[in-house]
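2024-03-11 09:14:02 INFO worker-7 job=invfold-0412 stage=load source=structure_tokens
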């Protein structure tokens, strides 16, 4: 293995919640429409929505610590509540009725990419499995999560993307760790926050995606070749930008013909592993449930500790996680650093499934 460069780990967080006004779900999509669907808060991040009309999504700027995450999230929440009189945001996994797929897709301010992607999932599911079970995709409109992006910077503070050969093995190693113990980490977050997770949140993907797009159970992949095979095995890329996009109109179309390929940012967003290499150039941990800012900051800080511990172990051992024995040694080391946040050994497929289903 080539010498591991000196790097620092940064973090950015996406936290979803549900917006209420006068006891009813508030149509945030309608409110944000005149702003192009997003409110930018310079220096702190942005406020946008997800699939559900009442879902808010806070996206922070790059942070160096959990405390910075808390500060930015609190500012974003105050900005929203100051902008829309009388609203409040609730955090938690949630699992209330969100309406039918048709209602979601005909909302006048639904994002065109979401519409195209759901239609593509419908076509793929019905073509492969000949059922209408894909309709549970509507449940995503009432499920809320916390996603954490981990990035690497060099000694000059320059961001190094996961496509950079010098740090590619580090990103892949972080992806391995966070995918394997993702459900375990989510359980620790639920215990810390006191907000019970919902048994269906982490496994909903298994109910409306075909086999190759679902999260990987148990130990993930070890290196570039295996990751490339993972992406190619997903089949077609689902969606593509429409012809009008070049004219400044954001349009999307179903694309079940173009094969998935590594490095395609559209494909990366349709790989629903517990941790994935993000189009932003980071590794994105997708395990956590929706929690208030103070708990999201704690979670981000712990993932920073896991990341730093992983990089330090790789530096000392000279390993690139070439097999089960390397992964086992790494997990023992991380368990000694961060305690019960990480299991003492990699989760087996059965243990992973049990954790994900909260058994």
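2024-03-11 09:14:09 INFO worker-7 stage=emit residues=359
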């Amino acid at each position: 293995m080539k010498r591991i460069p000196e790097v620092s780990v940064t973090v950015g967080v996406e936290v979803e919640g549900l917006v209420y006004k006068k006891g009813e779900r508030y149509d945030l999509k309608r409110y944000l429409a005149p702003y192009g669907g997003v409110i930018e808060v310079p220096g702190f991040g942005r406020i946008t929505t997800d699939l559900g009309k009442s879902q808010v999504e806070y996206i922070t700027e790059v942070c160096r610590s959990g405390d910075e995450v808390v500060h930015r999230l609190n500012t974003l929440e105050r900005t929203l509540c100051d902008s829309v009189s009388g609203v409040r945001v609730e955090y938690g996994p949630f699992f209330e009725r969100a309406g039918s797929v048709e209602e979601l897709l005909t909302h006048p301010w639904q994002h065109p990419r979401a519409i195209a992607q759901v239609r593509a999932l419908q076509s793929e599911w019905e073509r492969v499995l000949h059922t209408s079970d894909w309709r549970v995709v509507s449940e995503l409109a009432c499920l809320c999560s916390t996603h954490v992006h981990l990035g690497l910077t060099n000694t000059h503070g320059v961001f190094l993307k996961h496509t950079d050969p010098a740090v590619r093995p580090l990103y892949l190693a972080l992806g391995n760790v966070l995918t394997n113990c993702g459900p375990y980490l989510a359980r620790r977050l639920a215990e810390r926050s006191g907000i019970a997770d919902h048994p269906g949140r982490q496994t909903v993907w298994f109910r409306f995606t075909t086999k190759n797009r679902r999260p990987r159970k148990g130990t993930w992949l070890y290196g570039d070749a295996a990751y490339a095979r993972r992406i190619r095995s997903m089949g077609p890329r689902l969606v593509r930008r429409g012809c009008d996009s070049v004219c400044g109109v954001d349009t999307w179309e179903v694309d079940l013909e173009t094969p998935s390929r590594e490095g395609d940012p559209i494909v990366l967003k349709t790989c629903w592993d517990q941790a994935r290499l993000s189009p932003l150039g980071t590794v994105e941990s997708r395990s956590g449930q929706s929690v208030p800012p103070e708990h999201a900051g704690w979670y981000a800080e712990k993932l920073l500790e896991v990341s730093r511990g992983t990089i330090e172990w790789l530096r000392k051992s000279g390993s690139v996680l070439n097999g089960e024995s390397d992964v086992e040694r790494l997990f023992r080391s991380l368990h000694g650093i961060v305690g019960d946040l990480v299991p003492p050994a990699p989760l087996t497929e059965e243990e992973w499934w049990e954790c994900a289903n909260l058994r």
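2024-03-11 09:14:09 INFO worker-7 stage=report msg="Residues 3 and 315 are 8 Å apart (CA to CA)."
2024-03-11 09:14:10 INFO worker-7 job finished
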